[in-house]
Design goal:
SAM-dependent_MTases_sf; 8 helices; eight-stranded mixed beta sheet; N-methyltransferase activity; alpha/beta; 33% helix; RM_Methyltransferase; Rossmann fold; 249 residues
């Protein structure tokens, strides 16, 4: 199969990956955000942080959401350092974050060896209003490169994205839109490998497979790993059907 899904701790699994074996690292780590104090960070679950009180779904929580600022930076730096080692020359890294953790994420990315190359806003029309101030409708994708960007490819991606989180068939609290991820995974060369150390429900992997890339994922939660496995298998079948159908006339 064109994908491998590891179950376990991301840093432990990353250390086992071969040097220079992946072409892009695209990931949405637990932000460890939303709290100014220790009690605020530890008293609320991921669901409480990232969904509104009237949310019409009851999705499972995920672990790793209670680190303080310093430990989050150290942890993320270690993960991105191992990802850098596993990446080939010219590989691109893309890391989702929010406004609170954007400075820390840029620090970790650069401390790990990547050349920080920009910030891509992801604007979500269906998002929380803020009484007395601007609407909280954006997350950010910090991206960088190992060495230099490969400019031999005829690839031009948008500098921002506008898309809401999935509503129909949503299976993860922080699930990303497949249509956005299908564009992002194109930074990996055709036939290349995309790595996501925080696979969640598998959207990055689904996008990679649908775009003709291989996928290596890691997921700590057995609940979400089961969901990701099912979605990845379905993506393989879908891609196989597209290959059999051939190009559109």
């Amino acid at each position: 199969m064109p994908y491998t899904l590891h179950r376990g701790d991301a840093l432990t699994v990353l250390k086992s990956l071969p040097d220079e074996s992946v072409d892009a690292v695209i990931t949405d780590p637990p932000y460890n955000s939303g709290g100014r104090t220790s009690s605020e960070r530890t008293a609320r679950t991921a669901r409480a942080k990232y969904t509104s009180g009237d949310a019409g779904h009851d999705l499972a929580n995920f672990p790793g959401e209670n680190r303080d600022q310093r430990s989050y930076r150290a942890w993320l730096t270690a993960l991105l350092t191992e990802s850098y080692r596993a990446a080939r020359e010219h590989a691109v890294v893309m890391v989702f974050t929010d406004w609170r953790q954007e400075p820390t994420t840029s620090d970790a990315l650069q401390m790990a060896g990547w050349t920080w190359s920009g910030t891509i806003p992801w604007i979500k029309p269906a998002s929380r209003p803020r009484k007395g101030g601007p609407k909280q409708d954006s997350e950010f994708i910090l991206w960088g490169v190992k060495g230099t960007l490969d400019k031999t490819r005829d690839l031009y991606l948008p500098g921002h994205y506008i898309a809401s989180q999935p509503r129909k068939d949503r299976v993860h609290i922080t699930q990303k839109p497949v249509e956005v991820m299908r564009q992002l995974v194109q930074v990996a060369r055709p036939g290349g490998t995309v790595l996501d150390p925080f696979t969640g429900s598998g959207t990055t992997g689904v996008a990679a497979l649908l775009e003709g890339r291989s996928f290596v994922g890691v997921e700590l939660s057995d609940h979400y790993a089961d969901i990701a496995e099912q979605r990845l298998r379905e993506a393989v079948l879908t891609q196989g059907d597209l290959d059999l159908a051939g190009p559109e006339q």
